[in-house]
Each structure stands twice: as structure tokens, then as C-alpha cells.
Amino acid sequence: MTEAILLVGGKGTRLRPLTVNTPKPMVPAAGVPFLTHQLARARAAGVEHIVLATSYLAEVFEPHFGDGSALGLSLEYVTEEEPLGTGGAIRNVASRLHSGPDEPVLIFNGDILTGLDIQALVATHSSSGADVSLHLTRVEDPRAFGLVPTDATGRVTAFLEKPQTPEEIVTDQINAGAYVFRRSVIDTIPTGRPVSVERETFPELLSSGAHLQGMVDSTYWLDLGTPQAFVRGSADLVLGRAPSPAVPGRCGDRLVLPSARVAPDAKLTGGTVVGADAVVGEGARVSGSTLLAGAVVEPGAVITDSLIGAGARIGARTVVSGAVIGDGAQVGPDNELREGVRIWCNATLPAGAVRFSSDQ
User: Fold this and answer.
1) Which of 89, 92, 104, 266 is 20 to 30 Å from the Cα of 54, by its Cα?
2) Per the similarity annotation, which family is this (predicted)?
3) Residues 21, 60: one domain?
4) Model's pTM, two decimal places?
């Protein structure tokens, strides 16, 4: 049996106001909590037992997923009393694992959408005899990431945090946030204090002579840490660009949940999701966007690449592009909200309060 740890304790600060009421892994993507996609993909790869390392709004997870049987999984939940970092979170749940000392344990970050071949990563780990194996992906601009150069056999040679000069960029391979640990290695992580697996555990293992193996898998990969990335990830799931067995419907230009109401002449494109009990009025146009449960888009509004929170209302003829509207917010008619705008939960914006001229 292969088992896994899912790190779902982050506060999702960069995603606010989406994460004010909901932990990041539970924000809906393509009609279901994002975590559902990760659990379903793990199960499809043969994983049977998963321990969720929770912290922020920890009480939300278990009522939704229960013991995991509905997904064909056995789920357990461990809550950090104080934030422990990625390495500390892994060590904190170790007592719930069933694997023997030399057996593989998968580790997933709870904010990565990927098409990773999970079985291939486990196979690479086993065939190489590694202590830890890492999923690596290639990016055009690696300056915002940790670089992971490897030798000709795929063995990791260094960990280089966020290079800034051309001389420091020795590879385009980055840590993609999925790992396989030999079970006994997890027990070497210090207990009772914050530990970063990226900045402390991996470099120390490497310096001690441990075998760290990299597997480059350049299928779909997206860090959902920002609102723009989250909206894009949801749209890519609906469009079929990102694989998931948990999308509740056929892939296509739009996903409308059964209890939603969409006017016949409204136009939904670009992987748009209309959540449960949401309403889209006459003549509205929604592209590449997510409307969460109970959101209302009034007639003639235009929504592009945006996320509209649960119970929020967008007034008639209002234009929203590249923005995030928090849960319960009320945006009056004839407003124009452009790239980067965030409206906080339950805020009220009067009619015509925000407008942009055509040259802005």
C-alpha cells in the first residue's frame, strides 16, 4: 500500500479575501473544493491512506470529507496547534503512517494543480534507491522558485533558493511540490518546532550524503497561490487542460452546476464555472471566471478572468476583469473593476462608484 501526506495547513494569505472564510484547499475549483481533485488523483494512482496535515480553519475539512470512504480512501486528520512549516507538518503526522521504515510515503502540497504521473514518481523512487525523490518541473523564469539542479542520472546536486542574477540560474528545473520519502527519513525531521523541508530538510539531507533523486515531469503544473492563478486553474480543469477525475461534468467551455440558473441569452465561455444556486442574468457575459455558490450576476454585467465569492452580487452592466469579489460582497450597477482589484467579504460598493476611462 502506498500512503500519502497532504499539507493543507497554510493560511492562503495571498488568496484573500477568498480564504477569509474558507481554507485555501477548500476553495472550489471546477465546481468542487480544490482538495477533492488532489484526493481523486491520488486515489486513481493507487493511494489508499492519506493523512491531512491541517492548521488554518482545520475544522472545515473533516465534516466535508469524513473518513474518505466516498472517495475510496481512508482519511485521517492531524491539526497543528502552532504553524510548523512544511517539514514540521510532515513530522507532526508521522505517527499516523502505517508504512514500514523502507516503504515510500508520498507528500503533496495542498496548493499545486498538476498532471504529474504519480505512479512514475514512486517507480523512480524505488528503482533509484533514493531516500527522497522530488517532482521537478521546468519553467521559463525560475527566479521566483527554488532551483534543483541534477546530474546525468537525475540525482540532485544542490538546492538554490530564488536566484536573482543570470549567473545563479544554473538550471530551469524547480521543486514542483510533490515528494516521495523513505518512511524512516521522516523520523529524522526535528519535532516540536517549525521546519522548512525546502530550506532545511533537503539541504541537510544532501550535505549528509543522502540520495535525493529528481524526476522531471513537464506535464501541466500550476501553483494556485494567487487569485489569478486559482481562477486560471479552475478554468483549465473545466477546459480539460488540467487532468482530474473529480470534475463534476464533461469538459468544455463551461460548467454549470445543476441548481444554478443561467438566462438563455447569457454567454459563458473560457472554462467558466457557475456554482450551486448561482444566478446569471439576461445578456450577461462571463468568461474564464468562477461564480461560487449563490453568487448573482445581474443582467448585462461582463465578468472576465475573475472570481465571484459565495453569495456575492454583481450589479447590472458592471464590468469585472481580473478581480476577486469576496463572499457576500454587493457591487452595485455600472461599476468597472479592473485587474488586481479585490473587494472584501460583505463590502458594499454603490452604483457607479468605480469607473475607468477608456485610456486606462
Assistant:
1) 104
2) Belongs to the transferase hexapeptide repeat family.
3) yes
4) 0.91
